[in-house]
Amino acid sequence: MTQTPTAHTPAQGQSRAQFTVPATHPMVTVLGSRDALLRVIEKAFPAADIHVRGNEISAVGDAREVALVQRLLDEMMLVLRTGQPMTEDAVERSIAMLRASENGEGDGPETPAEVLTQNILSSRGRTIRPKTLNQKRYVDAIDKHTIVFGIGPAGTGKTYLAMAKAVQALQAKQVSRIILTRPAVEAGERLGFLPGTLYDKIDPYLRPLYDALHDMLDPDSIPRLMAAGTIEVAPLAYMRGRTLNDAFIILDEAQNTSAEQMKMFLTRLGFESKIVVTGDVTQVDLPSGTKSGLRQVQDILEGLDDVHFSRLTSQDVVRHKLVGRIVDAYEKYDSQNGTENGAHSGARSKRK
Q: What share of the chain is helix, strand, coil (3-state, %, to 5)?
């Protein structure tokens, strides 16, 4: 994209569109610092020649590309009007959503602006919100269903968004407590000989949940809430024999539950409670011969009323861009070599 004092006239077979940025929005919010957003758009629409003059942006070129540029600018303005800034990542995700819709791959009415402006929780000067269409649908499913399974690779926000919804429900007094749990299974390492008490030993398994809590609540309030039982963080084994009423319950790393543990956990559901189960079925760390409860439960509960399965993909990874490419590379390798998570068929029993 080039800033230029003149606008090109479309040649035969081409199209032209012009967009005027309202005076209330500085051009830097649309173009980006040092034209960073312009470069993202230029790279995404090589068949469109885009020019900027004052507060007007024009696009000339392939009719479909020009129409997408126009739609993108419309969506960007809708986001900016909410006071939320546009980032390079947000622009890239908006373009991906628009292209999917244009190619008939989208399966819903949601627009980029609807996805990017849905606030879940505001805490300590930052707002937590979905960043992809699948993440928005996952968050919406948590609102609509009693039990939701969030299944997808690392970095897709499965646990983080569930935690944000739990804190939101607690603050809105929709529930009286939050219960966070994980199975105590080592990811390839042996931690059983670590020194300390039982809580010292289980702390490494539960630390990611504590970290997320500190992002969403005043750190000084967390010990008080935990002492009062308003927030409970415990290994999955501590759930046996309990009935959990009026609670928002999250089971994290659910791929490392056995079939029996999954059934035990789901049947803890009490009145006025909600359950979110998160996990990545490609990263199972169970002992050889143990079937993953998260894999099995999809066959058992799929289609059951008030139970929803949200499936996220590498396109929903919100960590470093390289993480999504790594996930795709592993999937490609496994499909080409008949392996699972890099393990040959002889070792596949470890990943059931």
A: 45, 20, 35
